């Protein structure tokens, strides 16, 4: 990709690599011990790719993909009360499909990030753990400036920086 830049009356053409998008889905960071998610077999490190809710009396089925941790929150709040949700993904054990019952799942997740963005995210977590909240916010907000981020993922990073 070519980018034109001007400065001091000069025009320069700069060759830049196109943004590299991270993989689809969300990565599970934590599951509640003894909760429905652990019982169903969800594990930290699993990548959730899609979900499905079958038809229930008076309710049509629904399905979709995960693009942001916000998607997971919406499914838990809006869809799970209507019936069990099947989550499809992949993890250390390979591809999986598991069913979560209606209720509170208590899953902590993050976007699937490329190596550089994951490093920045982990630095932000470390800063927050050390009590350096402004440093954490600065790193999280820098992730929203990434040209490869979708609006949903950027919104999630901004939400995290506000917590």
Question: What do you see in this structure?
Answer:
By secondary structure, the chain is of the alpha+beta class. It folds into two domains: 86 residues, PDZ domain (Pdz3 Domain), CATH 2.30.42; 48 residues, no CATH class. Strands 3, 4, 5, 6, 7 and 8 form a six-stranded antiparallel beta sheet that branches. The protein has a two-stranded antiparallel ribbon with strand order 1-2. β1 and β2 form a beta hairpin. The longest helix has 15 residues. The N terminus is likely disordered.
Task: Tell me the total number of β-strands.
Answer: 8
**Which consecutive residue ranges, at least 5 long each, have pLDDT under 50?**
1-21
Could you state the oligomeric state of the chains shown?
single chain
The CATH H-level homologous superfamily of the largest domain: PDZ domain
Mean pLDDT score: 78
How are the secondary structure elements laid out?
Blueprint: E1 2-7, E2 10-15, E3 26-31, H1 36-40, E4 47-53, E5 62-65, H2 69-79, E6 85-91, E7 94-100, E8 107-111, H3 115-129, H4 133-144, H5 151-162
Antiparallel strand pairs: 1-2, 3-4, 3-8, 4-5, 4-6, 6-7
């Amino acid at each position: 990709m070519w980018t034109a830049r001007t400065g001091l009356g000069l025009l320069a053409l700069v060759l830049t690599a196109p943004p590299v998008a991270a993989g689809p889905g969300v990565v599970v960071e934590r599951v509640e011990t003894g909760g429905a998610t652990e019982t169903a077999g969800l594990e930290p490190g699993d990548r959730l790719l899609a979900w499905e809710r079958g038809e229930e009396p008076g309710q049509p089925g629904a399905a979709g993909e995960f693009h942001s941790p916000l998607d997971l929150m919406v499914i838990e709040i809006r869809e799970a009360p209507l019936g069990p949700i099947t989550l499809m993904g992949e993890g250390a054990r390979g591809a999986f499909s598991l069913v979560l019952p209606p209720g509170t799942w208590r899953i902590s997740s993050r976007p699937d990030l490329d190596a550089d963005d994951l490093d920045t995210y982990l630095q932000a977590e470390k800063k927050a753990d050390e009590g350096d909240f402004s440093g954490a916010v600065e790193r999280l907000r820098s992730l929203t400036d990434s040209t490869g981020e979708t609006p949903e993922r950027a919104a999630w990073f901004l939400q995290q920086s506000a917590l």
